Amino acid sequence: MALRRPFTLPRQLLRPVARSSLGFSSQRKNGLATAVPPVTQDATSSKGPTAMVFLNMGGPSTTNEVEDFLSRLFADGDLIPLGRLQAYLGPLIAKRRTPKIQKQYSDIGGGSPIRKWSEYQCEEMCKILDQINPETAPHKPYVAFRYAAPLTEEMYTRLLDDGFGGGKGGRAVAFTQYPQYSCSTTGSSLNELWKWRNRLEGKRANGNSDVSGAIQWSVIDRWPTHPGLVEAFARNIEDQLKTYPEDKRDNVILLFSAHSLPMSVVNRGDPYPAEVAATVHAVMQRLNFSNPYRLCWQSQVGPSAWLGAQTSDTVQSYVERGQSDIILVPIAFTSDHIETLYELDLEVMEEANSPGVKRAESLNGNPVFIQALADIAQEHLRRGESCSPQMTLRCQGCKSERCLEQKKFFAGDKASSLVV
Ligand code: FES
């Protein structure tokens, strides 16, 4: 089925398996074989509590969850704008794509590792927060995925069951796990959170317009240049650079790769490309601009124009020119997922067919990264702001009432008048 409207779906969710010969022999240590360290034990303070809610897109943990995952993904007009036919076309496309995508998840070990990494990162971050920010402890970890379990409604129900809201008040922080903001990703997750907040605690709950005692939400909506994030990326790059002979090391190309966006979204004013570029620049600054580098974009799909240059084309082009020492650096995700384990490792790297083309480790359970998450959260809790000033500004071309209302809600009383 041809899609006539652009969207930000990962390329591999829409196309056939590239090569049936791709096997596990090429799987890297980054894959599902990487064991998540056991969550450590820690004591918590008696103050608080504060719910820390990680937002991300999620992924199917098993191949049996693929169809439901795709159905939700194709139903999301923020991610895949199919217009009035969304409800009809979404399930059709999802059903048709399911076998191919199941095969791809099977090739990376049977499912996405994003849930186990998200839960681990959130739990570990909360323990650090209990120590460094006891005034808001205990910090309770929650994960809310947009397209896979645990879904936003499941997370919200857990919050209510755990004693937050429902007339009892309490504080929750929605912490996006997309470091760089896009309306297709963080924006979509916040729209979903706002929707379920209204259904479960807002004016529509029991027909009651009194929302006193509802959960007090604040949002960490972006953190593209946080020094801890930058440090974690830089160290992973340095580790991979050390695998090259010393006389070649300085000439290795650092190829930062992020998920692309349709140019229609870019031209609407989406802040994502600028924020991804900011992360890249900050990482290179930390590395003293030791190596040549480029930012390129992966997972384009469909016939419309997308932000380029494409990662796969870039690697091919450099290899053909004889520059075959390249480190791919996934710069816009906080853990492994199908775009790293399948698209980069099993497509781009195998197609390059050069031992000099490697990938930097994903952030996953990196303790430097988890400390950074705790530092970001601590700064947010201490500042006491509802969201960043950037959240109050809609894209120049945005016509969505939902975006407007969602932003007003999360901006809170003081800042909602700034949302335009
Ligand atoms: Fe960006 Fe609505 S599309 S604010």
From TrEMBL:
Main location class: mitochondrion
Entry GO CC: mitochondrial inner membrane
Superkingdom of origin: Eukaryota
GO BP annotations listed: heme biosynthetic process
Pathway info: Porphyrin-containing compound metabolism; protoheme biosynthesis; protoheme from protoporphyrin-IX: step 1/1
Membrane topology: Peripheral membrane protein
Catalytic activity of the protein: heme b + 2 H(+) = protoporphyrin IX + Fe(2+)
Cross-referenced InterPro entries: Ferrochelatase (IPR001015), Ferrochelatase_AS (IPR019772), Ferrochelatase_C (IPR033644), Ferrochelatase_N (IPR033659)
SUPFAM superfamilies: Chelatase
Name of the protein in its database record: Ferrochelatase
Organism: Aspergillus avenaceus
